[in-house]
Structures are given as structure tokens and as C-alpha cells.
Backbone:
């Protein structure tokens, strides 16, 4: 029996000829990523060493990445102190893949990793963030872990006792209609699979639509795979992966893509034709509460958010700017834009997108997670509604348990900003 | 035997268990105060130590979905509660085992607040209704970690073995 992409990656990383779903392996870790929650990882890491007589030293500082994005600049003295402690640890351990609060190399971890070429096809990536699934977009096996599991990886350089996940094959065909794209596809898929439909499983994406999709779109779909419960999403590396890494991430060394075997074993195959797909909206308070836009048209929106590790990339900002150019954000609605990285912010400035968005009335904020996780930079008032290109709409997610969050694509967010109600970009 | 102190619906997220706005608080000694913070009455009772250790939270499908934040487990561990749910999201389950929070996957569980449950090795007995429900075994891959009492002692022993 052949192997899926993740089985191949795990076999290689564990030094075995082959593995199959259900096997227990201990793969070497190629990249271990954390953000501000490195504060907890550092604490747990030090606890591991207590009483051992050994000096707490990370297994390989070149394989650790730490990116400040969740609360930048710090919203509280507590966060600022956590960040200070992490900086000291980074310096003491010689960690070089460190992205501080900066306007040149800062940004959201799930944009920084691809942008700087830290992830390659075939890599095993762990991250203390559930959206670490994003990096499957580059053909890596990339999954979220808790802080203690990360501390274990920092000490041992392996992920201990990992059960090889079964894989669901998702075959996508057809060309996206105008104003419909990767975000609508992944929301639709999550609605079909449900929020736990892929729990403990991998979503492996195939088909002509995926082959033609940009790395930006692939990052969006792998990012949200976790919202169906998936351990990871993955697009097997191909020409687009190599193009992205060479041209956009400046990778000069060898890139070797991993493809599944023709007779690989999948637990299920899901086929989706996107050629007739409508814009999709995930409604409060679950990501799998997905409806075609027709069913929620006219819903009053107080806050529009464009950004996040899902949809804060250059093409997202370009799409939004094209719709808002020469128009105005509706009175009674506020629009917040968060470019996913400083680099993207700079590109959007050069191309005039930022100017278009600001002139329309949008507030353009620094790169980072923004209000997505409900800490700062855009909390909802009591009973208010947000329409957001982010990835979660749980009760309380945008900082207020009485608020409502709808999730959508950047073009739906932009068209709705002009009207102040959920609006179909195909008819605006 | 222990009492059900909270009965929850499906898809309880880590934002519900430990809201994002408290994520700057990381230490297991400090997280318990924010458990289910927006369920104000329940949070107050937890903080007042109104429930004996071992008291049970019953969840539906997909308990602990969402973020990888380990605070969602340490906050419950700090109150020494147990979780019995129909299914549990992967990262939350992993974190629970790593930290030694007692979690039981019980697909058929039916219980109301106030019911007395008994958790055996492979079943959950509802002593109040007289019903019993099968457990789904926790992932065998994680047995070593459970036997060691959590991922910290497990990693410590692996580290020591590597040295010798």
C-alpha cells in the first residue's frame, strides 16, 4: 500500500521506510514556532530541567522561530513583560528566527514563516498556535501543539509519541466565479465536514483548482483546515510552491517536493466543484454554521475587519482596495485593516492600496493579529456585529461575549463596508 | 462518585473556557481565576471553591475546539475538575493528557447538572439515572505520557536517558 503525503513526510522524519495511519512515530522537528505564548513554553521548558542537574538549553536554536504578533505593540504591562522575558531568552539561546515588534520584519507568524522561507516542502513543523496548519500550503506537515509539548520539542528535538493521522482527500475542480475564491471554498468545505469532521485527520488538497491557486490562497485554505478539526491541511508541493519559495521568499538552496503515492490510502474522498459556488458566510457562533451569502444579505455590520493569518495578504488588500477605491465606508460602520506582515504593508503602500483604503475611511493598523482573538485593537461593543476575514467566530471571540462575528472573504468585507450591511460583491 | 457541576452544549471553544483577553496570563498557578470567565456565576462558584475536587463538567461533541492555548487546560486542572465529553478536539485532548487534566471521552453520555457520576476504567455510570455509557479509550500513543504523570516528567526522563 502506498503512502499519503503526510505518511511519507513522517516516515522520512522518523527514519522509517514506511508508516501508515495509526502508527506511533517520533519525527524530528524541522521548525518549532511560537509567538507570545513562548512565555509559557519557556516556563515549562525550565520546569522540565528542574532537578536534572542539566542546563536548560534548546536542542537547536536555528530551528526555533519566535514571532510577536498576538498582542503587538503590547496592550498591557503584563504582555510587555512577557515579551521582555522572551527577548532575553532568545538572546541567551542564540535564536535567530526571531521577529520582534518591528515595522520592517514584523508580522503574523503564519505569514512570516512562508515569507522568509522558513518552511519547505517535506518539513515537519510544530507551532504553539492552532493555525499552524497554514504551512501545509508549502507541502509541509505542520500542526498545532500546546506549550508543554513545545517545551518537550525544544528539549528533545522530536515530537514525542505522535500517532500518524489518517488523511481525507479533497479534490477541487472548476474555476472560481468572479468575486468567489479560496476563502469561500474553505468555508463551504468546513460547513460540509462540520467543525469536528476532520478531527485527528489531515486534509490533503488536490485538483485543478488547487494547482492553479496561488500560495496566498493555499495558505488561507490550509489555515482554516483546523476549523474542521484537522490536524493539518496540506497541498502537495508543486511548481507554484517552488515559484513562491524562489521568487517571493528568496530561497536559493534545494527544494524537494513530496507527492502522495497513486495507491495511497485515504479514509474518505470529498469532491467539490467551485464553478457554481456563491460567496459563503460563517455565521455566529460556529465556523461550521456556513450559509450562502443570500441568506444573510442586509445584516447590519458595525465593524469590518480585513486581515489575519487567513486573509491579510497582498492579494486580499488589492481586492479590497479595488472595491473601495473612490468609495466611502458607510457611516455607523468602522473598517479596520491589518496587513499580515510589514513586508505586505510596504508593498500595499507602494501599490497605493493603503491610500485607497484610508481615503475610503478605513483605519489601517500595524501588522499583527489585531482584534481576531479579542485582546485589543478593535473590541466589539455590547450586541455589536462584526464582519471579518478572520478565521473564528466563537462567542466572545472579538472581545465581547455579547457580540456577533460573521466570517467572509475580503471582497465581501469590502463591499459590505460601503453599505454597512452584508452585501453581495457580485451585485454592488 | 462525583457530581456534575456544569452541563454544556456542543462545540465549547477554548475562548469559552479561557477567553483570549486573559492570554497574557500564562502560569498554571495564575490561570484558574479565569476559568469560564464569561459564565459569571459558574466562575464565581469555582473561585469560591464551592465544588469538591473531582467534580465533573459534562460537554457535548467537539469539546475544547479552537485555539491551542494550554491555559484552557491548566485553568480547569487548577480547580481539580474532570471533563466528560462526547468527543474532544485534538489539541485540547493532547494538552489535557500532557498536563494531567482528567478527561473522559464518552460518546453516549447523558447527564444533567446535579447528577452523580462514577467514572470506571472503561465506563461512566450515571448513578442518578441508572444509565451507563462506554468510554472511548484515550489514544494509545499517549500512554507513556499518562503513565509518567504528564509530559513534563515524561520529557525529563527521556532527557535523562539521552544523557546516560
Residues:
Amino acid at each position: 500500500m502506498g503512502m499519503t503525503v503526510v505518511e511519507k513526510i513522517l516516515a522520512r522524519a522518523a527514519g522509517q521506510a514506511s508508516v501508515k495511519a495509526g502508527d506511533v512515530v517520533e519525527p524530528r522537528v524541522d521548525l518549532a514556532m511560537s509567538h507570545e505564548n513562548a512565555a509559557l513554553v519557556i516556563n515549562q521548558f525550565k520546569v522540565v530541567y528542574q532537578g536534572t542537574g542539566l542546563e536548560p538549553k534548546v536542542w537547536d536554536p536555528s530551528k526555533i522561530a519566535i514571532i510577536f504578533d498576538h498582542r503587538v505593540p503590547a496592550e498591557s504591562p503584563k504582555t510587555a513583560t512577557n515579551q521582555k522575558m522572551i527577548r532575553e531568552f532568545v538572546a541567551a539561546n542564540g535564536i535567530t528566527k526571531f521577529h520582534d515588534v518591528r515595522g520592517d520584519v514584523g508580522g503574523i507568524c503564519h505569514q512570516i514563516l512562508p515569507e522568509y522561507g522558513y518552511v519547505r516542502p517535506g518539513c515537519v513543523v510544530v507551532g504553539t498556535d492552532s493555525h499552524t496548519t497554514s504551512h501545509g500550503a508549502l507541502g509541509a506537515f505542520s500542526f498545532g501543539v500546546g506549550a508543554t509539548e513545545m517545551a518537550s520539542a525544544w528539549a528533545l528535538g522530536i515530537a514525542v509519541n505522535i500517532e500518524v493521522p489518517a488523511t481525507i482527500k479533497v479534490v477541487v475542480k472548476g474555476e472560481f466565479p468572479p468575486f468567489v475564491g479560496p476563502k469561500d471554498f474553505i468555508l463551504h468545505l468546513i460547513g460540509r465536514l462540520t467543525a469536528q469532521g476532520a478531527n485527528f485527520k489531515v486534509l490533503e488538497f488536490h485538483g485543478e483548482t488547487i494547482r492553479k491557486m496561488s500560495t496566498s490562497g493555499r495558505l488561507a485554505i490550509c489555515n482554516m483546515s483546523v476549523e474542521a478539526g484537522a490536524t493539518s491541511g496540506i497541498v502537495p508541493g508543486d511548481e507554484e510552491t517552488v515559484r513562491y519559495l524562489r521568487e517571493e521568499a528568496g530561497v536559493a538552496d534545494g527544494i524537494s517536493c513530496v507527492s502522495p503515492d497513486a495507491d495511497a490510502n485515504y479514509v474518505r474522498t470529498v469532491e467539490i466543484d467551485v464553478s457554481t459556488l456563491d460567496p459563503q458566510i460563517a455565521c455566529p457562533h460556529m465556523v461550521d454554521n456556513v450559509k450562502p451569502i443570500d441568506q444573510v444579505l442586509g445584516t447590519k455590520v458595525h465593524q469590518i475587519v480585513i486581515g489575519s493569518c487567513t486573509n491579510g495578504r497582498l492579494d486580499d488588500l488589492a481586492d479590497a482596495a479595488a472595491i473601495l477605491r473612490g468609495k466611502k465606508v458607510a457611516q455607523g460602520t468602522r473598517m479596520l485593516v491589518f496587513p499580515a506582515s510589514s513586508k505586505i504593508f510596504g508593498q500595499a503602500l507602494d501599490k497605493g492600496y493603503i491610500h485607497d483604503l484610508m481615503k475610503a475611511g478605513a483605519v489601517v493598523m500595524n501588522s499583527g493579529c489585531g482584534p481576531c482573538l479579542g485582546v485589543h485593537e478593535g473590541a466589539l461593543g455590547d450586541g455589536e456585529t462584526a464582519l471579518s476575514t478572520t478565521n473564528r467566530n466563537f462567542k466572545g471571540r472579538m472581545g465581547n461575549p455579547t457580540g456577533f462575528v460573521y466570517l467572509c472573504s475580503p471582497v465581501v468585507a469590502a463591499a459590505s463596508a460601503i453599505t454597512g450591511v452584508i452585501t453581495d460583491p457580485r451585485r454592488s | 462518585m462525583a457530581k456534575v457541576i456544569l452541563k454544556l452544549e456542543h462545540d465549547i471553544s477554548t475562548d469559552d473556557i479561557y477567553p483570549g483577553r486573559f492570554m497574557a496570563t500564562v502560569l498554571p498557578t495564575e490561570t484558574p481565576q479565569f476559568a469560564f470567565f464569561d459564565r459569571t456565576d459558574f466562575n464565581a462558584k469555582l473561585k469560591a471553591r464551592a465544588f469538591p475536587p473531582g467534580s465533573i463538567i459534562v460537554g457535548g461533541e467537539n469539546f475544547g475546539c479552537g485555539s491551542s492555548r494550554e491555559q484552557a487546560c491548566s485553568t480547569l486542572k487548577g480547580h481539580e475538575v474532570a471533563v466528560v465529553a462526547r468527543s474532544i478536539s485534538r489539541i485540547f485532548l493532547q494538552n489535557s493528557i500532557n498536563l494531567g487534566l482528567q478527561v473522559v471521552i464518552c460518546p453516549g453520555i447523558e447527564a444533567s447538572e446535579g447528577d452523580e457520576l462514577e467514572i470506571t476504567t472503561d465506563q461512566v455510570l450515571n448513578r442518578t439515572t441508572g444509565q451507563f455509557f462506554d468510554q472511548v479509550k484515550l489514544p494509545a500513543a499517549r500512554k507513556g505520557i499518562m503513565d509518567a504523570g504528564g509530559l513534563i516528567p515524561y520529557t525529563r526522563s527521556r532527557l535523562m536517558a539521552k544523557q546516560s
User: Anything to note?
Assistant: The mean pLDDT of chain B is 96. Helices of chain B lie at 14-17, 40-47, 71-77, 90-99, 143-148, 151-163. Chain B touches chain A through 48 residues (CB under 8 Å).
